[in-house]
Amino acid sequence: MERARRLANKAILRRLVSQTKQNSPSPALYSSSRYVSSLSPYLSCDGNVRSQRNIHGFGSQSRSISIEALKPSDTFPRRHNSATPEEQTKMSEFVGFPNLDSLIDATVPKSIRLNSMKFPKFDEGLTESQMIAHMQDLASKNSVYKSFIGMGYYNTSVPPVILRNIMENPGWYTQYTPYQAEIAQGRLESLLNFQTMVTDLTGLPMSNASLLDEGTAAAEAMAMCNNIQKGKKKTFIIASNCHPQTIDICKTRADGFDLKVVTADLKDFDYSSGDVCGVLVQYPGTEGELLDYGEFVKNAHANGVKVVMASDLLALTVLKPPGEFGVDIVVGSAQRFGVPMGYGGPHAAFLATSQEYKRMMPGRIIGVSVDSSGKPALRMAMQTREQHIRRDKATSNICTAQALLANMAAMFGVYHGPEGLKTIAQRTHGLAATFAAGLKKLGTVDVQDLPFFDTVKITCADSNVIAQEAYKNKMNLRILDKNTITVSFDETTTIEDVDTLFKVFALGKPVPFTAATLAPEVQDVIPSGLVRETPYLTHPIFNSFHTEHDLLRYISKLQSKDLSLCHSMIPLGSCTMKLNATTEMMPVTWPAFADMHPFAPTEQAEGYQEMFKNLGDMLCTVTGFDSFSLQPNAGAAGEYAGLMVIRAYHMARGDHHRNVCIIPVSAHGTNPASAAMCGMKIITVGTDSKGNINIEEVRKAAEANKESLSALMVTYPSTHGVYEEGIDEICKIIHDNGGQVYMDGANMNAQVGLTSPGWIGADVCHLNLHKTFCIPHGGGGPGMGPIGVSTGGLPAPETAQPLGTISAAPWGSALILPISYTYIAMMGSKGLTDASKIAILNANYMAKRLESHYPILFRGVNGTVAHEFIVDLRPLKTTAGIEPEDVAKRLIDYGFHGPTMSWPVPGTLMIEPTESESKAELDRFCDALISIRQEIAEIEKGKGAPHPPQLLMADKWTKPYSREYAAYPAPWLRAAKFWPTTCRVDNVYGDRNLICTLQPAHEEEEKAAATA
Questions:
Q1: pLDDT in tens, 664-707
Q2: Are 792 and 648 contained in the same domain?
Q3: S-S: 625 plus which of 132, 352, 788, 875, CB 3.0-4.6 Å?
Q4: How does it assemble (predicted)?
Q5: Rounded distance, CA 94 to CA 422, Å?
Q6: Element at 376 (helix H, strand E)
Q7: First vs last Cα of the chain: how many Å apart?
Q8: What is the pLDDT of residues 388-420, one digit of tens each?
Q9: Which pLDDT band, with edges at 50, 70 and 90, does 32 fall under?
């Protein structure tokens, strides 16, 4: 009855989606770019199941040719799923089951088990060569025009040395978030470079290590203003000169905080109500104008209002920095520092502020600390702000960054240095000024009189006529309305492009001059009062690596300090660190995908649109849902979007009062923070002794809040590493009491092909594409968090309201979607199902190998675990004084990244092997943990770890074990050893002495000497 009820009505989300209107001030405003401001596109999941072909062998008198012998040699699943059939049987028998299928039958509850999973397309899986051909076909359907749209997205020249050695380099894109600082010093230094670059250019002393995009960074700044004012002032004013997508995101985000967003012209800002917590302005403005904000900021501060400024890093190399105006927070995007537009992302956004607000900053911050020898070392600072610790009290629900893209942008700054960046900015401005001067000379249109940096605003008789002429020349302009156009210039614009633009705006009339002849007459249009006089990027790092061989060596030096999947497995529970195949990564850097502006006309992106449709269909099949949105550009953004869908459903029914969200303690750590952002009241329920959600607590909480229940947030399998038998009953309890079920997709790697959120009974789920579907973690990002929704049981009346905008680009970080698309299409339905099975097998095999050395904390009803398991180290604290961190640090000496520490249960390690690791690698990791357990039993040798070369080569050695044993605790290390570059990093020192930018070399030496 429950499933029938849920499937009875397919109307809700389709109706919500159909009514998700474009939230721009005017539909004509971005007509040329097909601007989409809502949580769309929702993708249909209809399709015909393709019949499988029967391939018959050819007979002969002597022998027959098998079907297997005729298959292509580059099939993908056998390359990804590491355990061979023989190993699968042996490992299953070791665990106590005759074969893999019997293990799966004992592990996945029968009540939620799927019979099979079939894709409407690519069911058998494409070979790697077929996939490349298919992606080339999609790429050919994209038409990349020269973009002059702007709106925060610009063409950029990605230096090949950065493209090849960072973006395309698995040594950089397969790293995990730098929680283990001792084996992450390389990317930590690069991210510190990024923070230093941002603080120098913005003129504010604190920066985070990146955020998702400029629009969501502005929304985070709005939340900061609300927090600074302790929630007592509920109005946030946004200047009409801000990018429209930024305005829309802030409006969406404000709902959960009960904030009122007012959009107004600067001259109409009104603080008389005394209820304004902050304001947002753009510098330069979205239409190109440069304004002096000095008096504006003074007036805002006089009225107790905080000022947020969205800005452009390239412009700030020549413009007066925001910090000198006195603004409180600066946000923006580093995209034009060598990161492709990629149809919207991923890009590294930034947020800079003063020291006063450092504990309210969202995102990750890299800080300078010292290691146990007293030498400077880097780490992620102030981690106590993060969601897994503070839960609903966290400063933000964002638990990731755009580390890979921040590293690219930082290296762009290092490569060009201050003078190189300034030269790019001056050239860009010079081309814009030459273009404006030429239009004035032509006299066919009017040019805005306000000063500008790179964007020229033009008034004309008919903007569509000019736009069509530009299309003929493969150029995209931004159409504001029927009489207004803007043209934005960038690093890739040529003087020949300017001449072509002259012809476009002349509309067939002869142009009696060229840009080259006109340029010597053109004057700089930036007012003297807005010209930058403050130096920036003065540290030697930004002034030392301006040749390719110098930068190559610097990149290689940093890479050598970091452990990645190039070295060994990364067994982090809940993080699913599977290998990202080269074939999946290849299309990402093809110009047909990388160079597309997110607001280019949709007809120019037919290849992208076809991929979105196919990917959406396959994700619907995987999840059992009816519709998918690809817009959320991180897992946390997906959580937020999914909860907003549920919120919109209740609003559509008139149930505005439904705001209670039940969250088990075993749910993913970001869940409470996401619920708080949606304005929900959180009720926590516990687990039983076996790690399962306490169903009676859920029932009691749901019934007690029946009239106000909005949602349950649940992770499945649970973060305790078990398939809970009562999950379908839990879903029914929530539905019976008027709520909806939100399933966190963090553990989807244990569901694909075996069960699904829609089959289990969930109504909404986000997917971490960077976990289950192979988008690389990139040292701490990028990620994607698309959401799927079951329309069954969610009837929507005509009053259904749109959700609004979730991320700055219509399809989120579209450039990395080809990775998941190729992974799924090459694996096919059987390959994906086998991946889930082997992930479960690998986890059970490791748990069995380790159980006689460490207690395994939770198991299912038949004694098995899911795709991850928890090792209990709490007894060791009593018997040997050993903490999980001690074990994790000693694992570094064995060449491994530590598992997830002390989460979700304090004093434990959570291990997830994934399906892509071989039995040999699993054994190697188990051997390391077993060896460490023996060390603990003998003389507590794990306490001094890790052991970098400088410690081993020191004149004095005071450890109770030999240098040799410290360095080579296992025999395989003599053949290949990954060396940490620091001793154990002092976390407390780094937080008490917070330094988040590069320091002069002599200061670092003095600090190290003083500490020693």
A1: 987 777 888 899 889 999 999 998 888 889 999 999 999 999 99
A2: yes
A3: 788
A4: Homodimer. The glycine cleavage system is composed of four proteins: P, T, L and H.
A5: 64
A6: strand 376-381
A7: 70
A8: 555 656 667 777 789 999 999 999 999 999 999
A9: very low
Asked whether residue 393 falls in the same domain as residue 440, the answer is no
Average pLDDT on 19-33 reads: 32
Among candidate residues 15, 6, 126, the one with its CA nearest the CA of residue 75:
126
| Distance set, CA 832 to CA 54, 499, 914, 918 (Å) | 21, 53, 12, 17
pLDDT greater than 50 at residue 799: no
pTM exceeding the 0.90 threshold for the entire prediction: yes
Residue 36, token pair as written in the block = 């989409």
Q: What is the CB neighbour count within 10 angstroms for residue 428?
A: 24
Rounded to 5 degrees, φ, ψ at 478 are -100, 120
Burial of 1012 (0-12, 13-18, 19+ CB in 10 A): exposed
Q: Which residue type occupies 472?
A: K
Same domain assignment for residues 653 and 797: yes
pLDDT digit string, tens, across residues 312-359: 999 999 999 999 999 999 999 999 999 999 999 999 999 999 999 998
Angstrom CA distances, 44 to 313, 621, 641, 788, 961, stand at 39, 11, 18, 11, 63
Residue type, 216: T
- Residue 742 in contact with residue 765, Cβ under 8 Å? yes
Going by pLDDT thresholds of 50, 70 and 90, the confidence category of residue 959 is confident
* Edge-to-edge strand ranges of the sheet holding 900-901: 869-872, 908-911, 900-901
The one-letter amino acid at 367: G
Q: Residues 377, 1005: contact at Cβ < 8 Å?
A: no
- Tell the residue number behind the tokens 């010292």, with chain if given: 370
Q: Which of 818 and 792 is assigned the larger pLDDT?
A: 818
pLDDT-derived band at 382, boundaries 50, 70, 90: confident
In this structure, how many other beta carbons lie within 10 angstroms of the beta carbon of residue 931?
A: 17
Q: Which band of pLDDT confidence, cut at 50, 70 and 90, is reported for residue 379?
A: very high
Q: Are residues 297 and 372 both part of a single domain? A: yes
Nearest to 197 by CA among 377, 33, 334: 334
**Under 8 Å between Cβ of 746 and 718:** no
Q: DSSP letters along 841-893, please? A: HHHHHHHHHHTTTS-B----TTS---S-EEEE-HHHHHHH---HHHHHHHHHH
What pLDDT shows up at residue 993? 87
What Cα–Cα distance (Å) separates residue 886 from each residue in 110, 775, 876, 941, 967?
A: 40, 31, 11, 9, 16
Mean pLDDT within 52-63: 47
pLDDT at residue 980 is higher than 50: yes
| Residue 234 structural domain | 178-414
Q: Which of 481, 507, 530 is the last residue of a domain?
A: 530
pLDDT tens figures, 475-505: 999 999 999 999 999 999 999 999 999 999 9
- 822 torsion bin: left (phi>0), alpha (psi -120 to 50), beta (else): alpha
Q: What is the pLDDT of residue 843?
A: 98
Residue 153 CA to residue 150 CA, distance in Å, equals: 5
Q: In what order do the strands lie in the sheet with 306-312?
A: 206-207, 349-353, 329-333, 306-312, 276-283, 235-239, 260-264
- Do 662 and 794 belong together in one domain? yes
Cα–Cα distance, 980 to 366 (Å, whole number): 18
Residue recorded with tokens 């340029």: 519
State the Cα–Cα distance between residues 112 and 756, nearest whole angstrom: 8
Residue 588 lies in a domain: no
Q: How far apart are CA 516 and CA 402, in angstroms?
A: 40
Between strands 475-476 and 146-147, the pairing is parallel
CATH of the domain at 498: 3.90.1150.10
Measured in degrees and rounded to the nearest 5, phi and psi for residue 104 equal -65, -40
**Number of domains, the chain:** 4
Q: Are residues 764 and 873 in the same domain?
A: no
